[in-house]
Amino acid sequence: MKNVLEFLESSAPRFGGKTAFSDGEESLSFSELLRLSRAGGSALIERGLKSEPVAVFMKKAPGTIAAFFAVIYAGCYYVPLDASMPLFRLQMILERLRPRAVIVDDSTRSLAASLAPEGSVMAAQELFSAGENASALAAVRAQSIDTDPAYIVFTSGSTGIPKGVTGCHRALIDYANALCPVIGAGEESVFAMQVPLYVDACMKELLSVIKCGSTAYIMQQSMFMSPIRAVEFLNEHRVNTLCWVASALTIISGLGAFEDVKPQFMRTVCFGSEVFPVKQLRLWQEACPGARFINLYGPTEATGMSFYFVVDREFKDGEIIPVGRPFDNTGFMLLRDDDTQALPGETGEICIRGTALTHGYYDDPERTAAVFTHNPLNPHYPELIYRTGDLGRLNERGELVFVSRKDHQIKNMGHRVELGEIEACADGCEGVVRSCCLFDKQKGKLFLFYMGSADEKTLGRYLRGMLPRYMLPSKTKRLDALPLLENGKIDRNSLMEM
After folding, report:
1. CA-closest candidate to residue 57, choices 167, 246, 159, 197
2. Model confidence over 66-77: pLDDT tens digits?
């Protein structure tokens, strides 16, 4: 297998009229998805596009996924965009890409026309209505190889300039083959897609559907403004598998939705992107007693999730749930600052190797070279690793435990402090749903923001009884909700501005 579309081409004849993707209004069966994708790919080939980025600037809907696959059928690589993204971010991405094609729908056409290069805007429906050119599609496939790019996903850069992570077919194929058995994806699986389509986290559902014949229902972000409505959506569509960021799960459990309604069909709940507080995990376990719970961890630069841990025991409040072991055909190492290997129990930077690695950052060789480096433990031949910037350690069971980001490890009063350890402690306090700890280097002070019913004095007393003096925040502040980035992670920059 050398092209990720081979999954769809295998599944479509078997599952035909079964729903592949739906948002409750628009639905695409497997056969319709294949037909639209091949027609759209044929139209793009007819317009002379080849081995280049094509922006897909559409709303979160099944047709957008068909546009992704159409771009791949044309031998190009898609770049997902969305009108909910900040305007300056859209401008920077389009300026960097200068794409010759920007695929739009009715909701994005006018904005795209004002931002995209002249003559580049193409309506998705016009592409889908074109006739299929089987010989042209076959000619493109014959020239393709498995290391060809399939997509570019832009992530937030520390400098404020988005980084375009370029993923390839080989990595996606290996990811699908490793992920689906771990989460138990099959033709009976019904997913609810929580994340935006312009982040790599949606690959878990996209790949499960086209490989295994699963069905995925697309959720709009506005639905999470009413956690009860979100759970009702799960029950309405008989959703049995979730692959959500920890913040989305916390919104449901932490705001009391389970007091009114519980998921009725849940078999598997996967969580990731950030640490999931044990207290919230326990609420989900009580609400879904027959479900498996799986912690997933991995960076966009390694195509998605790279590690998994099936929750097989109870954890205490404030304890960190391991990220476990690597997916099949993924290697890792923990490196000290001097590039030697950390000992068991010792903290080191999590570095990943193998075919899971993406090609790095599009048109950005300097930032690519800074984190995609030679494996310092292998002096014998060239071998790339990706330095995640995350710190981890192996526990006494040999499981990988995420400790914190390297830039979240600070020195305070002469002591080395992990901000994640303070957050885990605060999350264990009664009435705290979720917390985020920051360090102001100029003032030399720790600040803790949290959401929940606990008042600030109560949380302060709790922390004083649990933490040494040098780890105590100078100030705690309760918020109605913690600000989130598009990928579901806490927006630490917004909190720092506060």
Report:
1. 197
2. 999 999 999 999
pLDDT tens digits, 26-54: 999 999 999 999 999 999 999 999 999 99
Average pLDDT of the residues in 221-231: 89
Q: How far apart are the C-alpha atoms of 61 and 28, rounded to whole Å?
A: 10
**E strand or H helix at 149, and its extent?**
strand 149-155
Q: Give 434's contacts (C-beta < 8 A, 6+ positions apart).
A: 247, 250, 254, 277, 280, 427, 450, 451, 452, 482, 490
How far is residue 54's CA from residue 67's CA, in Å, rounded to a whole number? 10
Task: Name residue 83's amino acid.
Answer: A
Closest to 350 (Cα-Cα) out of 370, 326, 368, 321: 326
Largest alpha-carbon pair distance within the chain?
71
129-142: buried (b, 16+ CB within 10 Å) or exposed (e) per residue? ebebbeebbeebbe
3-state class (DSSP) for residue 484: strand
Closest CA to 420 of 434, 431, 399: 434
171: nearest Cα among 152, 186, 155, 149: 149
Query: Which pair of structure tokens corresponds to residue 204?
Result: 């878990």
CA angle (191 as vertex; 55, 74 as ends), nearest 5: 30
Taking alpha carbons only, the member of 241, 357, 245, 242 closest to residue 297 is 245
Report residue 97 as tokens: 């890409």
Contact 241, 189 (CB under 8 A): yes
